[in-house]
Amino acid sequence: MLSRLSLSGFGGKRRFDDLTEQEVLALAISSEEEDGRIYAAYAAQLRAEYPSSAAVFDGMAAEEDGHRRRLIDAYQQRFGDFVVPIRREHVAGYYTRKPVWLVKNLGLDRIRDEAEDMERQAHAFYLAAAARSTDAGTRKLLGDLAAAEAGHQKTAAGLAAEHLGEEEKSTEDQAARRQFVLTWVQPGLAGLMDGSVSTLAPIFATAFATQDPWTTFLVGLSASVGAGISMGFTEAAHDDGKLSGRGAPWKRGLASGVMTALGGLGHALPYLIPNFWTATILAFVVVFLELWAIVWIQNRYMETPFLRAAFQVILGGGLVLAAGVLIGAA
């Protein structure tokens, strides 16, 4: 048996249908252990900012640990003290879990959804495995595991009702939205405004001074990329987020840098078109869309009144655009 399992270390995987009842039970034990650790990690990640959600995941981790102990008791009664070392990655087609570091960096709602998917995947897999099994003992074992996973879903719902009432959920959702705005939207919006507006003058000045689309594109490309790099490093370096609560500096720097570059590239790319006036008219259209996108983001996420945001952005952008055109045509 152990020699067969050792094949997984060389890239091979066992088929689930080929596992013995002992191996299936050992696999269930290791799966419960891993899920319990994942829930505990979620709880630790959320505890400072979302204590009610952290309490839910603490409870789910405790439930997983209880099921693990019962599975170990059943294993000891049937097969002794040595638990076969088999894990999810050893079995072809077995459901997998996303790395904790990947999910926990995505926000509260994403973590909640991932936890729900974890229980649903385990339940569905055990049901499908039981339906394919022709051995009565294995079929019963898999059915019991499916029932246990269904019970986990009910337990999760009960824990959520106990620890996460409407008021607590609303408070945590508001905090999550605020964190999303501070970490991603605010620096991204600043970058988009800087990239869209500040590059208008050099790009359109070059365009009308040279009437050469390729030269205009090169100026726009260099201005956009340079501004993106500058804005990204500036945003990441000036605040580590520990006191301000604005989130990880690399996230803010990434949002600011990428959006700055995109803001400038939007009206530089049309100058890849060889015809000057066709490219310029298309660039004007792109500028109009960029400015309205800024207005929409300000209204949607920053709660700036729509008319005020439209007046500020369009007036400012129009003045910079006019300056570039006048300077280039002089």
CATH architecture of the largest domain: Up-down Bundle
Strand order of the largest sheet: 1-2
Examine the coordinates and then state which fold CATH places here, giving the name of the CATH topology of the largest domain.
Ferritin
**How many domains would you count in the coordinates?**
2
Number of strands: 2
Q: Give the percentage of residues in beta strands.
A: under 5%
Count of helices? 12
Order of helices and strands: HEHHEHHHHHHHHH
Q: What is the rounded Rg?
A: 28 Å
Q: Which whole number gives the mean pLDDT?
A: 78
Helix content percent band: over 70%
Q: Could you state the CATH homologous superfamily of the largest domain?
A: Ferritin, core subunit, four-helix bundle
Low-pLDDT residue spans: 1-11
Largest sheet: 2 strands, parallel
